[in-house]
Amino acid sequence: MKFKKLQQIWDQQNEEPMYTINQEALHDIIISKKNKGRHILNFSEWANVIANLTAGGFLLYSTLTAQQLNISFFILGGLMIGVGLFVFIGRLKRYSQPHNYDQTIVGDLKEALADSQFQVYLSQLLRWYLLPISILVLGGLGLDDSSSILFLSLAIIFFAAIYWFSQWEHRYYVNRRDELKNLMDTLKKNDTSPQN
Predict the structure, then answer these.
(1) Model confidence at 78, in pLDDT bands (50, 70, 90)?
(2) How many DSSP H helices and E strands does the chain contain?
(3) Measured on CA atoms in the order 100, 105, 108, 111, is the torsion positive or negative?
């Protein structure tokens, strides 16, 4: 039974204790959502760390070894390395903090919600990060005499497409978080505490 369907059934049966309906199915769905959310978050963090450190390192190396220093690309390289390290340190801090989530429906839901909230924060941060990247790349290309108008136009289209995709991605994460929040609110409305 799908997550929304379960929630819909419970919403329709306000007079009955929620957990008597199907605790096992609910717990399985929450654990599945928690695991999926954790997998997505891990992938997002590592992808950002590796991509930023690799691209930033390459940009810094190629800029510093070029005959003429491109200030925009130099700043961009430093920025990318900084963001890669920021995401990596944030991940280390998050995992070093004690997580006191018990293995109940509410405990697993709280853990899924915490991961989901962090994913929303990360995607929001990366959406804003796109702005300085776009400016610095376009500035770097503009300073290079060999860059053509066509290449600059393609770069603008590329960043516009990335921005559109990042908006879609961010909405997806917000919807996931809101879905978990709604379920948590529904659980709180019922005074019965689940035992598994």
Answers:
(1) very high
(2) 5, 0
(3) negative
